[in-house]
Design brief:
The protein is an alpha/beta fold and 424 residues long. It is built from eleven helices and twelve strands. The strands form two sheets. A ten-stranded mixed sheet has the order 7-6-4-3-8-1-10-11-2-12, with helices on both faces. It has a two-stranded antiparallel ribbon with strand order 5-9.
Length: 424
């Protein structure tokens, strides 16, 4: 166990006897699985958190989309609980992810703004204990695949924050492709150029071809395995899915915590022919590419679930699917947060209310839409306006301690699990 955690007053041998799953910006919870569920769950569940990037509330068919078909996300919802009032704690990428990983409001440790390049030499305050560190100390294998955005240098990298394995991009965006084949497409909606022009990459007045633009962006934000830069020719969404499936296969015999943080459907809008062919009927170019990107993400969810089933561990694996914030208005109508108002970057419903699904066949009721406040939301209590926190865990032994300086969470009773309510 890392001494740095012990030094902060966390006796992990007593603090976590099972699993802590942290979603949103509540606090590190101390709630329990009910006795009835505990009888059904023979071993500690595996945990997979699948985070989409800028996915709108209305951009999946299970949440009402008439444009994008998402059969795999729909099936995940049918196998578990679909929350209709799930909130994140911030309407932009990095702060939302910081809260997700720490269980605390990002303003409490100075990460309430997107870093915009500042994460190259810094990141989330090292004194903040992150979920993977807790999970690892509880005996879980911990892995992350995808977009980090919480710090790139030593001390801030995923491998320094509790993850045993890492494959992905540490910054906020990268190119999905390195080349253009017949039928592929890439598009930057007018006005959104700054979202894909990373700090220090190039003079915006210099005109590059689409392929040159892709390769420039990938050089600025490379794919790494651990800390080593690797050449990744695959469509990035497919590469992240491939790595997630491989991780499950290698760790099927031990409890694992896997954080799959896709960078789709964040800009740049890029998709391959395979997915675009499903949406050739859509006349608007941006909407067509965006729908194809969501379709690739949906395929990834399906592949992950099929791997779990093939390995015989689906029943006792908790999968949580959500987005880091609402979809972006700057892609000019290519996405939707309907029926909500507002977009990414705005403290309106469309900025912070997100698709939110939890599936754990051995423990959670299947096919039930829920208002999140029915399960206990935090920290706004019964108002349902606060960021959502879900934390099914095994019973915490008497006398265990919270990290020093962190909140102590209360418990709320639920039909199948207990989900904490916090005010931190």
């Amino acid at each position: 166990m890392p001494n740095s955690i012990l030094d902060r007053g966390v006796d992990m041998r007593r603090y976590v006897s099972g699993l802590t799953v942290l979603l949103g910006a509540g606090c590190i919870l101390a709630s329990c699985v009910s006795p009835q569920v505990e009888e059904k769950v023979a071993v500690r569940p595996n945990v997979i958190v699948i985070l989409a990037d800028d996915l709108g509330y209305g951009d999946t068919s299970v949440y009402g989309s008439k444009i994008v078909s998402t059969p795999n996300i729909d099936a995940l919802a049918a196998s578990g609980v679909r929350f209709t009032r799930g909130y994140v704690s911030h309407p932009v990428c990095a702060p939302s992810r910081a809260a997700l990983m720490t269980g605390r409001y990002q303003v409490r440790f100075g990460y309430e703004f997107n870093p915009v390049g500042r994460d190259r030499q810094g990141g989330v305050e090292p004194s903040e204990v992150m979920t993977p560190a807790l999970m690892r100390a509880a005996g879980y294998q911990t892995g992350m695949i995808g977009k980090w955005h919480l710090g790139q240098s030593e001390g801030f990298h995923p491998l320094d924050r509790g993850f045993d394995e890492y494959f992905g991009i540490t910054a906020g965006a990268s190119s999905f492709m390195l080349d253009m084949k017949e039928g592929d497409d890439a598009y930057t909606p007018p006005g959104s150029e700054d979202t894909v022009r990373l700090p220090g990459t190039r003079d915006p007045s210099v005109q590059l071809t689409p392929v040159e633009e892709m390769r420039q962006m990938r050089r600025a934000t490379p794919v790494t395995r651990g800390r080593q830069v690797v050449e990744e020719p695959a469509y990035l969404t497919e590469a992240f899915t491939r790595e997630a499936v491989d991780y499950i296969g290698r760790h099927k015999s031990e409890p694992f915590y896997l954080y799959v943080a896709y960078n789709a459907p964040h800009t740049p809008l890029q998709a391959t022919k395979k997915y675009l062919d499903r949406y050739r009927h859509i006349p608007d170019r941006g909407t067509r590419i965006y729908a194809a990107m969501v379709s690739a993400l949906d395929d990834g969810v399906g592949e992950i679930r099929r791997k779990l089933a093939a390995e015989g561990i689906e029943q006792n694996t908790l999968i949580v699917f959500l987005s880091d914030n609402g979809c972006a208005g700057y892609i000019l109508g290519a996405c939707t947060n309907a029926p909500l108002s507002g977009f990414k970057g705005e403290h309106l419903e469309g900025g912070v209310r997100v698709p939110f699904i939890a599936s754990w066949p051995a423990a959670l009721p299947a096919g039930r839409p829920r208002r999140l406040r029915d399960y206990g939301s935090s920290p706004a209590g019964s108002s349902g306006r606060g960021p959502a926190t879900v934390a099914p865990i095994h019973r915490r032994p008497h006398g265990s301690r919270q990290p020093r300086g962190r909140c102590s969470c209360q418990r709320s009773r639920l039909p199948a699990t207990e989900i904490g309510r916090a005010s931190c």
